[in-house]
Design goal:
single chain; 148 residues; 5-stranded parallel beta sheet; DHquinase_II_CS; 3-dehydroquinate dehydratase activity
Length: 148
Amino acid sequence: MPAKILVINGPNLNLLGIREPGIYGRKTLEEINEELRREAESQGVEIEFFQSNHEGEIVDKIHDCLNKVNIIIINAGAFTHYSIAIRDALQAVNIPAIEVHLSNIYKREEFRHKSVIADIAVGGIYGFGDLSYRLALEAALAFLQQGH
């Protein structure tokens, strides 16, 4: 059975390409997902995508990953900065996670400087626009190849 990666996107990421393109870029979430899908499939890895503007739906999706997903790539959006529920869900399922952000959260408003999931993630990639997702996928693939 091939390894499986889940990419979770939080609030407002469904508006990529429209929302503040100077910060988040012009690519849509669907375009980013398609690039990731092609790369994952070329590596023989299954990949699934999930986006929600609702915290509880993200928590439920994380719970559903138990014994089904090898690694999670997550851009929790604004929930990054305050959702203990998402943090607790990630800890509960004990699936390695890579945190992703399109923008450099440390060059933005001070409230964005704190991530409540950073310290439980395997690692994080931020500030490279849509390339952040491709770098996260590369990191996830390397992590899986190392037998994690």
